[in-house]
From TrEMBL:
Gene3D superfamilies documented for this protein: 3.40.50.2300, lambda repressor-like DNA-binding domains
Keyword DNA-binding found: yes
PROSITE patterns, per the entry: HTH_LACI_2
Gene Ontology terms, MF aspect: DNA binding
Pfam families (alphabetical): LacI, Peripla_BP_3
Keyword Repressor in record: no
Record keywords, A-Z: DNA-binding, Transcription, Transcription regulation
Name by which UniProt lists this protein: LacI family DNA-binding transcriptional regulator
Coiled-coil intervals, chain numbering: none
PANTHER family reported in the protein's UniProt record: HTH-TYPE TRANSCRIPTIONAL REGULATOR GALS, LACI-RELATED TRANSCRIPTIONAL REPRESSOR
Residue ranges annotated for the HTH lacI-type domain, each copy included: 6-62
Species in which this protein is naturally found: Echinicola jeungdonensis
Length: 339
């Protein structure tokens, strides 16, 4: 039979103090109300018996669950999971727990998740929103929930967000290929109107226009990618565009699809075709030849997201202060981008 869970009542009875006294101490409301001696006695006993409060019941009493939601496109993606892991530690150090979930860029699924988390009295939301999700974000703000958007934003919605300088980063990635001797640079991206993809496309076009080079843009739908059709689509694109001597991929998962195709076709990198990927991956450092990529500042992103969220959670005035943080990406130049 399992060990009986200890309650506040049990603690009060054991220490011969009132339930209210124990509640004040556990909820950090004992200062100037209860003596330091009693506070220490309760805290020592709680630590000794390993007492864990019922968070749901605690949330009903205080209106706070001490839980933050991290809603991303795909939590299994190394970029999102790495950030989640870093934020989890920072949240824990500040008395919060972090819940991760994936929306799969599905508006209906994201809406259902938010409805679920509202029922659980979650305190704040860090979200990489699907397309056309402005109304749902607006409703969260209207209900006075702390919200921080991440990786992408909505131009018409004034809400705090943390992104990287996608346009400048994409521009520098293409510039690196040009400096490496490539002149027919294809751009493989997602079929998306989301801000991060629009900004990366804009950076590609800006660099191509500056160097007066031919444009070649190929878009893969997220649906086709999830159906594992990106390999064959990229292969068709290359077959129809034999003039290309370099490829710039808008995401690391598109780059991985492209590398599989190039390997299958026996194309030599960088002798026959140069490659650069937006967003780094461990695979690129291990690949032969190594793959040049744009690295996003994962630690800085995690720190900034939690900094903004904690300001909103701990200070009601913090929710009215909108912060737009744009962090720099770093181009890691490897073997694939220079002939």
């Amino acid at each position: 039979m399992g060990k009986k869970k200890i309650s506040i009542t049990d603690i009060a009875k054991e220490l011969n103090v009132s339930i209210t006294t124990v509640s004040f101490i556990l909820n950090n409301k004992a200062k100037n109300r209860i003596s330091d001696e009693v506070i220490k006695k309760v805290q020592d006993y709680v630590k000794k018996v390993g007492y864990q409060p019922n968070q749901l019941a605690q949330g009903l009493r205080t209106g706070k669950s001490k839980i933050i939601v991290f809603m991303v496109e795909d939590i299994s993606d190394a970029f999102f999971s790495s950030i989640a892991r870093l934020m989890e530690g920072k949240a824990y150090d500040n008395g919060y727990k972090l819940i991760f979930c994936s929306t799969e860029n599905d508006k209906d699924k994201a809406r259902d998740l938010i409805r679920l988390f509202k029922d659980r009295q979650v305190d704040g939301y860090i979200i990489t929103p699907p397309a056309d999700f402005e109304q749902e974000i607006h409703e969260l703000l209207e209900e006075d929930f702390p919200v921080v958007l991440f990786d992408r934003y909505f131009e018409e919605l004034d809400v705090s967000h943390v992104i990287i300088n996608n346009q400048e980063s994409a521009f520098n990635s293409v510039k690196n290929l040009v400096e490496g001797g490539f002149r027919n640079i294809g751009y493989v991206t997602l079929e998306s109107n989301q801000s991060q993809m629009k900004d990366r496309l804009s950076g590609y076009e800006k660099a191509i226009d500056l160097y007066d080079l031919p444009k070649s843009i190929f878009k893969v739908s997220f649906k086709d990618f999830k159906a594992h059709r990106s390999d064959e689509l990229v292969e068709t694109y290359l077959k129809e565009n034999p003039q290309l001597d370099a490829l710039f991929f808008a995401t690391n998962y598109l780059a991985k699809s492209g590398l599989k195709v190039l390997k299958k076709k026996g194309v030599k990198i960088p002798e026959q075709i140069g490659v650069v990927s937006f967003d780094d991956s461990d695979v690129f450092e291990l690949y032969t030849p190594t793959i040049t990529s744009l690295s996003q500042p994962i630690e800085s992103i995690a720190d900034k997201l939690m900094e903004i969220m904690l300001k909103q959670l701990t200070n009601i005035k913090g929710r009215n202060k909108i912060i737009h943080a744009e962090l720099p990406g770093s181009l890691i130049v490897r073997e694939s981008s220079h002939k």
